[in-house]
Amino acid sequence: MIRWQRIQKEASKIAGRGITIHGTTALPEDIRAFVKDDAKQVEIVLNMKFNKTEKDVVLSLAHELAHVTLGDEGHGDTHTDEAKRIEKSLNSALERSKARGTKVSKPSRKSDRT
Q1: Tally: H helices and E strands in the chain
Q2: Over the stretch 35-83, which tens digit does the pLDDT of each residue have?
Q3: In Å, how far are 64, 69, 94 from 37, measured between CA atoms?
Q4: In whole angstroms, what is the distance from residue 92 CA to residue 97 CA?
Q5: In what side-by-side order are the strands of the sheet with 18-24?
Q6: pTM, rounded to two decimals
Q7: Exposed (0-12), middle (13-18) or buried (19+): which is 108, by Cβ within 10 Å?
Q8: For 16, what's the count of Cα atoms within 13 Å in the CB-facing half-sphere?
Q9: Are β-strands 41-47 and 18-24 bridged in parallel, bridged antiparallel, or unpaired?
């Protein structure tokens, strides 16, 4: 299961502004993901042919968010190091949410009390 809301929340913190994550299968085969960035909003589009697991999504988002945090389209050592840092941050946030657990409460029904 991919925890989209938790991933989006952490990605937004990393980007320092709102983020929208889209998924599609309509991208060319050579594109795993891409980012559109402006001063107010970041949009990341994931190719769902490649992003099938939470690990895949984290790797793709880390790569694209590195472009955002560095303000650079390059793919050198600096980008690789930043993507690894972001990947760790995303994974840590997911681990924290897993450790806290999610309580699912059943809605109470009046008829149950009578």
Answers
A1: 4, 3
A2: 999 888 999 999 999 999 999 999 999 999 999 999 988 999 999 999 9
A3: 10, 10, 24
A4: 9
A5: 18-24, 41-47, 33-37
A6: 0.83
A7: exposed
A8: 8
A9: parallel
